[in-house]
Design brief:
By secondary structure, this protein is an alpha/beta fold. The protein has eight helices and ten strands. Helix content is 34%, strand content 16%. Helix 1 packs antiparallel against helix 2 and helix 6 packs parallel to helix 7.
Length: 287
Amino acid sequence: TKVKNWMIMNEPAAFIGLGYMLGYHAPGKKGAFKFLKATHHACLAMADGGRIVRKNVDQANIGTTFSCSHVDAYQEKDKHRKAVKKIDALVNRLYIEPCLGLGYPIDGFPALKRIEKYFEEGDEERLKFDFDFIGLQNYFRIVGKKAGWPPLMWAKEVPAKKRDVPMNEMDFEVYPEGIYKVLKQFSKYEGIKNIIVTENGVCYEDHLEDGKIHDEKRIQFFKDYLGNVLKAKQEGVPVNGYLVWSLTDNFEWSEGYEPRFGLIYIDFETQKRYIKDSGYWFQELLR
């Protein structure tokens, strides 16, 4: 029987955090308790979804994906290191640890204990599911510091544009070592058998000239990030796949058509496609 690959959920930290914590994405219902309730329901749905596929699909290879970022302290001070632990708990630990049977990362972010308000009988066991693989999606590093706002969090990100670092067109820091560090971090969990980098890529300003896109910065991005993926693999991290975001330019959530991540350029008015230099570079790499 042919193996069938199944992805249960994509980036819960993104759609819940940006939707229910920051109100930046749909449904825009901001609030700490809305965030906690949505988090718990998403974690239950992720595990339940895995069980439903396991029961009904022969030879299913079941995974789920997590957006993740390496987190550093703004300065080597205790107050900033404590803030980083909270950010790491929310960004990297909150959705992976329940399915591994570790519960929610209350040790890193004590305010998460309030999530137990939404538990029903049997939920602790329901949260667990043995995924065949996990997907990691990495785009940028986060640098955090202690802050007086918002309450409960008492921590905030220091934006890349305030730190004089390389950035993409969405003002995310380009930090190739970050993908190595998150691969190492997630590989330390018992129960993770296989890791796939299910998204990694960059948006830069592209200029169409005589039907060509000369995107050397994007090529360098992939050289640097793939080098760090290979380094992690050579050190024993069970990473066995890498997917570029994205094949073509796309509609990027609330940013629309402005950020271009593709290996293939799309003229959105004519719908004509043009393979970028990075696309030809990847073609040669895969050969």
